[in-house]
Design brief:
The protein has two helices and 13 strands, in the order H-E-E-E-E-E-E-E-E-E-E-E-H-E-E. By secondary structure, it is mainly beta. It starts with a helix and ends with a strand.
Amino acid sequence: MPSPRLAILVLTLACQAIVVPVSAQSPTPVDGTGWQPLFDGHSLDAWRGYRRETLPEHGWAVSDGLLKTVPKVKGSELITRKAYRDFELAWDWRVAPGGNNGVKYFVTEARPSAPGHEYQMIDDTGYPAALTPLQHTAGFYDVLAARTDTALRPAGEWNTSRIIVRGTRVEHWLNGQHVLTYELGSPEVKAGIAASKFRNAPGFGDKIDGHIMLTYHQDECWYRNIRIRELQ
């Protein structure tokens, strides 16, 4: 029987030999039950193109367990086949340096100029144009800014985000930090919309049974572990 010291040495060397590639890592831990994958590293069955029943011919690719945008082509947005009302959505993402993308929710196909609320995903410090706080990562794009002083990781590194919708309350999370909360229909939200580019979009800001959208902005962006659970 080997000595305890030898057994510990063998176990240590075995553990050091295990290398898990980024694309194959386990999903970021989430609490509770009822989670359903929207992207499991292989299938896009939960998705279709915006205002179409099939996937876009260009702009998206699945490779090494990741969903990624193909930059600088005539791509278009992806939306979930299912619509959601009260939910928790979680996903891992990264953008290339200088890149821009986003996740939208409360998405309707009846208003293509302003389909839904956007959780912004962007290189806050390296984007080639000047940004306002309303255009920074994790904000309600162009309406309400998020507090992400210590939460955002640099472009090229993985971030984990969550959106929680329950009743009129909406929360944005970034890398485990609660960075924005707003109440649908509140004076703050109405004022933000009135000052935004969405001010003339009928129904923008209303809660609906809506799709989830992955936007396409011509820049490189990668996703993994996209999952959702419906809330009661």
